[in-house]
Amino acid sequence: MNGNDLVADFIQNLKWDDLSKKTQERARLCLLDGLGAALAGTLTPVSEIAADYASAFWKGEGATIFLHGQKSNAAGAAFANACAGNALDVDDDAIFTRGHPGAQLIPATLAVAESVGASGKALLEALVIGYEVAIRAGRCWHADHEIYQACGSWGSIACAAASARLLKLNHEQIKHALGIADYHAPNAPMMRDIAAPSMSKHAIGWGALNGVVSAELAQRGFTGIPSILGFDEYHDWVADIGQKYWMEDWVFYKEWCSCAWGHAACQAALQVVEKNDIAIEKIKHIQARTFQEAVDLLQDYPATTEEAQFSVKYPLACLLLDGKIGLAQILQDRFDDSKVRSLFDKIEVVLDPQIDRMYRETQEMDLRMHSAVKITLADGKIFDSGIVERGADRYDVSALEKKFRWLVGFVMESSKMEETLQIVKQAEHLKDIRELTQFVG
Predict the structure, then answer these.
(1) Does the pLDDT of residue 395 top 90, yes or no?
(2) Does the model's pTM come out above 0.85?
(3) Most-buried pick from 120, 143, 350, 398 (CB within 10 A)?
(4) 160 and 215 in contact (C-beta within 8 Å)?
(5) What pairing do the DSSP bridges indicate for beta strands 70-72 and 251-252?
């Protein structure tokens, strides 16, 4: 059977009660993590702009724009909330995607589910569909494009798949939705945004928007091309859908609000400082040795939160001073801190050929990253971490609940935050997802 038919069957026939407990648990965790990232992301300038635009130009009352007191149609709310979802770069990653599925899928599914009055179980079914399609579409997409494409490209197909399920499209409509999303997917050359960080970022807002619109168009009879999921050369990557659930073990949650390419260097530096009880004010120079993509991150002092995230030097300085990289560090209020700037100026990021080779060897399946840090003190003493490995962050339920409270505590008072957390944990029992979406409006 053609890959597009396999995927359409999967989208039509998946049932929550047939899923393993592990897959169900993963879906709940993804919802919790993605919603937490999106709610906290509403503090950023990109979220304010996207919310204002969506409510003004994609008018409607069908879907909630989180924490801005505004409404839009499903596509507009998906766009605005997805911009918030990735605004802090603390949202999830997944194997093969080389990027972020949750920041697109959680906003898109919540917006469509709210607009049609779907149940919590229907939402979670759509999320499982979205993640499984995202992982496969991402793998195909990166193999098919010489230029590294950011998340909104393959994410468009995943959001279309999840939206198609919630809209109860038939088999042929689903295939058209996938094809429309594929054809209209944003051309998002990732490394151009690395070179000049901006609100365009990973094109995640456009991925969510395109996915929702594609499903809505297909519902009305709009036709699309056969999607990349049906290419013969990628058939083996699609054929196991509905049999193997990659999301069970291969979705990862982020600890820090910054690009993951810099995390190994940050970890190496923190280990050296803590192990040797180094006083930060005694540091003369820090050399981070890493792989090419991390070297390509912004070397200048940031002027925006996007520049702060796409950096090794700025998050590393904040981590050594504060022990964390979160909202208090990554938002613009911190940029004038003289201590951060002073330490930033002492950091050098350089290419290490051995570490670069290690990255090339592991990026497809493993997601491990490596860096090494050498710290020189004012008295001439030198401490070298050696090569430090940082695997993808894996969180259990209690850790993700703690992360949710940490993030959402910046935007909600404690009792409402706890109630939101409890609603999410019991999402599959909600008769109408509006009990959640309108609560966080």
Answers:
(1) no
(2) yes
(3) 120
(4) yes
(5) unpaired
pLDDT band at 367, cuts 50/70/90? Answer: confident
Average pLDDT in the 1-30 region? 97
Q: Write down the CATH superfamily of domain 3-255+397-437.
A: 2-methylcitrate dehydratase PrpD (1.10.4100.10)
Residue-averaged pLDDT of the chain: 96
Cβ neighbours of 87 (radius 10 Å) = 31
* Nearest residue to 227 (alpha-carbon basis) of 138, 100, 111: 138
Query: For the chain, percent helix, then strand, then coil, each to nearest 5?
Result: 60, 10, 30
Closest CA to 108 of 135, 93, 86, 136: 86
Q: For the chain, how long is the longest CA-to-CA vector?
A: 73
- The tokens describing 109, both together, are 């599914």
Q: Which two tokens stand for residue 6?
A: 């396999």
* 260-390 under CATH 3.90.1150.10, yes or no: no
Annotated domain spans of the chain: 3-255+397-437, 260-390
Q: Given a cut of 90, is residue 110 above it in pLDDT? A: yes
Average pLDDT of the residues in 139-144: 97
**pLDDT tens digits for range 244-283:** 999 999 999 999 999 999 999 999 999 999 999 999 999 9
Residue bearing tokens 């609603």: 423
CB-based contact 158:131 (threshold 8 Å): yes
Give the pLDDT confidence score for residue 280 in this predicted structure: 97
Average pLDDT value for residue range 212-237: 98
Tokens standing for residue 361: 């060897």
Q: Please report, for residues 83, 168, 229, 323, the alpha-carbon distance to residue 163 in angstroms, rounded to integers and kept in the order given.
A: 18, 8, 17, 40
For residue 48, CA distances in Å to 51, 66, 237 come to: 5, 10, 39
Q: Rounded to an integer, what distance in angstroms lies between the CA atom of residue 371 and that of residue 349?
A: 10
Q: How far apart are CA 73 and CA 186, in angstroms?
A: 21
Q: What is the mean pLDDT of residues 110-123?
A: 98
Query: Cα(8)–Cα(169) distance, rounded to whole angstroms?
Result: 10
CA neighbours closer than 13 Å in the CB half-sphere of residue 7 = 37
Nearest to 145 by CA among 179, 188, 176: 188
141/17 Cα distance (integer angstroms):
31
